[in-house]
Amino acid sequence: MTSFTSPIPTIRPALPRDKADVAEFTKFIWDGHDYVGEVFPRWLEDPHGILLAAEYAGKCVGCAKVSLIASGQWWLEGFRVDPKFQDKRIGSRLDAACNQWWDEHGDGMLRLMTNSKRVKVHHLSETRGFVRAGEVCAYAAEPLTKATDAFTPLQPEEAEEAAALCQRWMPNGYLNIGWKFAAPNAEAMRAALQDESLFFWWRGRKGIVSAWEDDEEDGNRFIVGMEACAGEDRVQLLEDVRRLASARGSVVLRWMNIMSESILRDLDTAGYRKDWDDAAYLYERRHS
Ligand SMILES: CC(C)(COP(=O)(O)OP(=O)(O)OC[C@H]1O[C@@H](n2cnc3c(N)ncnc32)[C@H](O)[C@@H]1OP(=O)(O)O)[C@@H](O)C(=O)NCCC(=O)NCCS
Question: Mutate which of 11, 25, 123 to test ligand 1's pocket (most atoms within 8 Å of Cβ)?
Fold first, then answer.
């Protein structure tokens, strides 16, 4: 492993002048599909949490962010090191600084999601005491053109009622809101609603789904991040969601959350097929 002579990389809060460096080096991450360069300017404005940068020889060569989702629910994201400077323990320092910041300023639970093959992140997370809460995967189904009146948009003032329904049907489950996971309490739901997430009651108050829409080159994608209902109703709900996706003009429907034997069986029955080559791990650490 390369060691640094002089100058030595430093970890500090990110600055507006880091935008250009981050935009440049993230072009070479994930075959050019990294989103961090695009969102970084917005992240600099976030008054909660912390956005850290690694600086080396006057340039920003890495970043990582601790974000607040709802009270006591935090999310680690945007963990990146310039490919030219990887494997030199810069990531390790950034991750340590994020965790230290959260130990000092955070509370409740800190979570992150990472690809099941990203061994450096597994190593760092497990060393710091994170536990694997589950394995996440995405399943896709064709939207069905037949109309449905099974769904009603949830209003912010109904969030307590929706959280109670989640508590009833998935007491240990997670809300997936735009790639971030949180316990589905009313505050997290209200925050998600403000952040362009969608929630729908299903068949009156029999169930609830959360979703978001991604506008991609080939058309709109409808992504279901959580479903809660009685176990025996789930296949019907998942089939109805295929009609909802079509009604919203989506060309792709995807379900993404933690896998279990029963959800995999129901997804299969409702016509959903595996859509990712790998899985992802959801990690979490409780504040001491
Ligand atoms: C993930 C990433 C941020 C890590 O940054 P990095 O500077 O290359 O990582 P480091 O050199 O600090 O290594 C991190 C840790 O993994 C360890 N490590 C390295 N190779 C490893 C391996 N094959 N297996 C297990 N651990 C390994 C290192 O020893 C270090 O741990 P230590 O501090 O206990 O010694 C960087 O590789 C990156 O930007 N990847 C692309 C974007 C990405 O996937 N981000 C993560 C999203 S969750």
Answer: 123
Residue 283 Cβ < 6 Å to ligand 1:
no
In whole angstroms, give the CA distance from residue 70 to residue 62.
26
- Residue 219 makes CB contacts below 8 A (sequence gap 6+) with 250, 251, 252
Pocket test for ligand 1, best of 29, 120, 124 (most atoms within 8 A of CB): 120
User: What is the whole-number distance in angstroms between the Cα of residue 125 and the centre of ligand 1?
Assistant: 10
User: Which pair of tokens denotes residue 133?
Assistant: 């809460």
pLDDT value at residue 143: 96
Q: Does ligand 1 come within 6 angstroms of the Cβ of 92?
A: yes
Catalogue all structural domains in the chain, each as residue range(s) with its CATH number: 10-107 (3.40.630.30), 138-284 (3.40.630.30)
Give CA–CA dist 284/92, Å, rounded.
Answer: 18
Q: Is 142 exposed, middle or buried (0-12, 13-18, 19+ CB in 10 A)?
A: middle
Nearest CA to ligand 1 atom 32: 92
Structure tokens at 5: 């002579």
Q: Is the pTM of this model over 0.90?
A: yes
- Whether 122 is in the pocket of ligand 1, judged by its Cβ within 6 Å, is no
CA distance 245 to 250: 5
Position 2 pLDDT exceeds 60:
no
The answer to whether 103 and 85 have CB atoms below 8 angstroms apart is: no
> 8 falls in which pLDDT band (50, 70, 90)?
confident
